[in-house]
Specification:
With about 450 residues, the chain is an alpha/beta fold. It is built from eight helices and 26 strands.
């Protein structure tokens, strides 16, 4: 296990007081490691989990050549370019069983009416859709130049071949992938266990819901946005509430979290000028670095490891959800986020979410950035990455367009609630003019 200093030494130009967004992602990719515990889940419980092994197809899919549509099956070699083809219908092939009529034989000049998914009768390789033929009694007429041999036939194994991977280790189990597993007759799948993530807010000015308002205090919104993003990611969330700026309480919170969780997320206490209790406690209990990231919003962030060491004299926290002791000798990965609500969500989306996916064992590529034309002028200095909250819509010509959701202050939570994506203005990028294309990270399914 590498120390933070060893990881930093591997990164060119590493400066904890001036990190680019790309450097942060590179550092975190070297810091975190995937969980190793495997659990076997029924398909109905596996949605959102990460596959721990390849799923190999036990048979060909489809298991037989079959019809792609309702129509008439024939031998394609009888087709000619310049003349219509007349064929006698000698039976009907239904889905779910092989056609047995006429001892399974179809002679030249004959065809079989066939339903979608039905097994192709022996010797037949082409299907003409029923709406394209003229029918008179038991004879059909196929116009010339309508078909080529092999049309409208699904080949055995064209979807999946026996012995080949149908799903791959590291894939997130989406509804479509669960359906694919079910089509192979699988009742269960082996997945990595869900990640356990502990979260708490820090600060004497933070009110929990239900507390009476008081001057200078604010209600804790971060606890609920982080809970929502972690839940959407499929993590088991250990909610530890609000921890006051008290050294003993902070030590108890970090120790308890490191004992129970794979990762710890906090908000508040890492900015310059804030109370030093949180930073002091992080350093006391683990290997922690404090960063100033060249980004807006979200400049301060702490990362590292907190060891699972619990003092007998540490107070017991009340109101925190719990899980059985993790007994993790390497401790928990720490993500100390800033306190402002928008900054918390942006740093989570930009850095924490990719790191947690890696810890979950997922091999998912980064979320794709879409291109949209800006509907307004945006001032931007090169040398930092900016994340503007935006609303993406479709322009009259079918292209994407985007505008900001108003004031972009890091404490303006409404700007995030009204957005459907983040405009990502990259490190070297300058001012944006009306009509310029910008990258957009969409929210759907994320927050």
């Amino acid at each position: 296990m590498k120390t933070l200093d060893q990881i930093a030494a591997e990164l060119q130009g590493y400066d904890p007081q001036a990190l680019s967004a790309d450097q942060v992602l590179a550092f975190l990719s070297k810091l975190v490691t995937p969980v190793q515990d495997v659990i076997e889940l029924p398909l109905f419980e596996a949605l959102g989990r990460v596959l721990a092994e390849d799923v190999v197809s036990p048979f060909d899919v489809p298991p037989h050549d079959n019809s792609a549509m309702d129509g008439y099956a024939l031998a394609g070699q009888q087709l000619t370019e310049n003349a219509a083809l007349e064929l006698q219908v000698v039976g009907t092939a239904l889905a779910g069983k092989a056609w047995q009529g006429n001892d399974g034989r179809v002679l030249p000049g004959q065809c079989v009416k066939i339903m979608t998914g039905a097994i192709m009768p022996q010797g037949l390789d082409t299907v003409v859709p029923q709406e394209f033929v003229a029918v008179q009694g038991d004879v059909i007429t196929i116009p010339p130049k309508l078909l080529k041999p092999g049309d409208n036939r699904r080949l055995r194994g064209e979807d999946l071949m026996q012995g080949k991977p149908a799903l791959q280790k590291g894939e997130l189990l989406t509804p479509a992938r669960l359906g694919l597993a079910a089509s192979l007759g699988l009742k269960t799948l082996k997945t990595w266990r869900p990640l356990r993530v502990a979260y708490f807010s820090t600060g004497d000015e933070i009110l929990s819901l239900g507390e009476a308002p008081r001057e200078g205090a604010v209600y804790d919104s971060n606890r609920y946005t982080v809970f929502g993003m972690l839940t959407r990611l499929g993590c088991q969330v250990i909610d530890m509430g609000v921890v006051r700026d008290d050294p003993a309480l902070l030590e108890a919170a970090f120790s308890q979290a490191a004992t129970q969780a794979d990762a710890i997320i906090t908000s508040g206490g890492v900015s310059v000028g804030e109370a030093d209790f949180t930073k002091t406690m992080m350093k006391k209990l683990g290997d922690v670095a404090f960063w100033r990231i060249a980004m807006r919003p979200g400049r301060p962030m702490a990362v590292g490891r907190i060891l699972a060491v619990k003092s007998a004299s540490s107070p017991v926290l009340t109101g925190a959800s719990s899980y059985e002791n993790n007994s993790n000798p390497n401790g928990a990965i720490l993500f100390g986020l800033p306190g402002n609500p928008v900054a918390v969500m942006v740093t989570f989306l930009a850095f924490v979410r990719p790191a947690l996916l890696q810890m979950m064992g997922a091999s998912a590529a980064p979320a794709p950035l879409l291109k949209a034309r800006s509907l307004e002028t945006i001032r931007k200095k090169p040398g930092r990455t900016e994340y503007q909250r935006g609303w993406v819509s479709t322009a009259p010509d079918g292209s994407l367009q985007v505008k900001t959701t108003g004031s972009q202050g890091s404490g303006v939570l409404r700007s995030m609630a009204e957005a459907n994506g983040l405009m990502v203005l990259h490190h070297a990028q300058g001012n944006v003019a009306i009509g310029d294309e910008v990258d957009v990270l969409m929210f759907d399914g994320v927050i």
